[in-house]
């Protein structure tokens, strides 16, 4: 076994809520030393959100925070003070990466923007992610991931044609953007290793959301069509493809038999329900998708989802039961992949938490780790990374800089 691939990397995480912290967590999963800067005076909003362990609200007991900030160290600083900002600048000299996710211009006004921090460390790679990016007419607009979904067009496409848009689940772009941030950061670090020069990475959340709507963009680029909500038509270019009700309470199966070989296999399995000539070709199935899905739904409705999945898979047809979270907790594939780990923390006790989302072989896997308590590594980081003496740290604490 070798060391984790990012064990050489040190990251200063100045972000909060989800998009920036999740990016830092991905780096921590692969060995990076991620130092989160936060404050008990102006607490990370994620610490105020549930679910809380045993239902008891407390900033150290929210599982959302533990999930998104697992494996980091925490430094508690009051960045409204010049001394606090000075500590950040001194830390920047000793890190490879800075991550921030505030509205464009916020860190510039604090003396912690890119142009200032690069003076401290010319090899620094800094990633910024706000809703609309650092340029353009809306750069200073405030917003969250649900607004990013609206801007990207995802909200307009989700739902039924005759009803209001439902939008995707939760703060959608907060969840998808970290994948782009991490990829860009690793590319920027490779560039730094080749040139010796740092660089600035700007990832707009709204633009990241656009990348998941390519079929809609293709349709518009091809003929100017403005895609509309299509209900259960999961993919406008595939049929049959979707989620279909099965026997039992809230039991469903997802399947896709668009490819001719899969379609013929499904036709044989469900015969004679799907024998109409209208369904012979993909074009015909797309044209008559409503009728096709209605017939398919009637066929699946009285079957057990698990049994039907096995029958479909036996014929090579892509299909899977729609899982609930109780099933996911014991899913044999997730267990075999080592998806879950157990963490132990004084505030939340022993809790199952996900490990890194993929494995690199041969590399020593990191065990699941809890998120830090506010400021739990303040003295250690200021002493060992920034090089402050104990008397200096004590003075910072007396002056209210360490919060």
Explain what the structure shows.
This protein has 403 residues and is of the alpha/beta class. It has 2 domains: 10-211 and 348-398, 3-Layer(aba) Sandwich (Rossmann fold); 241-328, 2-Layer Sandwich (formyl-coa transferase, domain 3), CATH 3.30.1540.10. Helix content is 39%, strand content 13%. It has helices at 19-29, 63-68, 82-92, 106-109, 114-120, 145-152, 154-157, 172-195, 205-210, 214-223, 260-270, 282-287, 289-300, 305-314, 325-329, 332-336, 378-384, 390-398; strands at residues 10-13, 33-38, 73-76, 97-100, 125-128, 199-202, 241-245, 252-256, 319-321, 340-345, 349-354. The strands form 3 sheets. It has a 6-stranded parallel beta sheet, with helices on both faces. It has a 3-stranded antiparallel beta sheet with strand order 7-8-9, covered by helices on one side. It is elongated, with a radius of gyration of 25 Å. The model has no long low-confidence stretch (mean pLDDT 91).
Descriptive tags:
403 residues, alpha/beta, Rossmann fold, formyl-coa transferase, domain 3, 6-stranded parallel β-sheet, 3-stranded antiparallel β-sheet, 18 helices, 11 strands, 39% helix, elongated
* Biggest pleated sheet: 6 strands, parallel
- Describe the global form: elongated
Query: What percent of residues adopt helix (DSSP H or I)?
Result: 25-40%
> Could you give the order of the helices and strands?
EHEHEHEHHEHHHEHHEEHHHHEHHEEHH
Strand order of the largest sheet: 3-2-1-4-5-6
Question: What would a concise description of this structure say?
Answer:
The chain has 403 residues and is of the alpha/beta class. Helix content is 39%, strand content 13%.
């Amino acid at each position: 076994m070798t060391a984790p691939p990012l064990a050489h990397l040190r990251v200063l995480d100045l972000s909060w809520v989800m998009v920036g912290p999740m990016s830092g967590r991905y780096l921590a999963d692969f060995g990076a030393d991620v130092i989160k800067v936060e404050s008990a005076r102006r607490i990370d909003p994620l610490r105020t959100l549930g679910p809380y362990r045993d239902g008891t609200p407390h900033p150290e007991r929210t599982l959302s925070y533990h999930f998104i900030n697992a494996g980091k160290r925490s430094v508690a600083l009051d960045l409204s003070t010049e001394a606090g900002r000075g500590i950040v600048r001194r830390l920047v000299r000793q890190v490879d990466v800075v991550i921030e996710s505030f509205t464009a211009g916020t860190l510039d006004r604090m003396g912690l923007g890119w142009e200032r921090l690069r003076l401290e460390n010319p090899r620094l790679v800094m990633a910024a992610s706000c809703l609309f990016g650092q340029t353009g007419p809306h750069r200073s607009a405030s917003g969250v991931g649900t607004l990013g979904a609206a801007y990207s067009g995802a909200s307009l496409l989700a739902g039924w044609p005759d009803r209001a848009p439902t939008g995707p689940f939760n703060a959608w772009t907060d969840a998808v953007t970290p994948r782009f941030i991490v990829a860009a950061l690793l590319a920027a670090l490779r560039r730094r290793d080749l040139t010796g020069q740092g660089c600035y990475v700007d990832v707009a959340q709204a633009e990241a959301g656009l990348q998941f709507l390519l079929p809609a963009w293709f349709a518009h680029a091809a003929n100017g069509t403005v895609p509309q909500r299509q209900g259960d038509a999961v993919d406008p270019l595939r049929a049959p493809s979707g989620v279909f009700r099965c026997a039992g309470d809230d039991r469903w199966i997802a399947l896709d038999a668009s490819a001719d070989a899969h379609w013929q296999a499904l036709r044989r399995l469900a015969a004679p329900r799907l024998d109409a000539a209208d369904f012979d070709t993909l074009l015909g199935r797309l044209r008559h998708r409503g009728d096709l899905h209605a017939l398919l739904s009637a066929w699946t409705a009285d079957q057990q989802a698990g049994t039907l999945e096995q029958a479909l898979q036996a014929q090579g047809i892509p299909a899977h039961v729609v899982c609930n979270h109780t099933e996911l907790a014991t899913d044999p594939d997730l267990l075999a992949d080592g998806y879950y780990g157990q963490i132990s923390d004084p505030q939340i006790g022993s809790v199952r938490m996900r490990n890194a989302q993929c494995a690199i072989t041969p590399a020593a896997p990191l065990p699941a780790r809890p998120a830090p308590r506010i400021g739990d590594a303040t003295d250690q980081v200021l002493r060992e990374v920034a090089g402050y003496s104990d008397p200096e740290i004590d003075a910072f604490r007396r002056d209210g800089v360490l919060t």
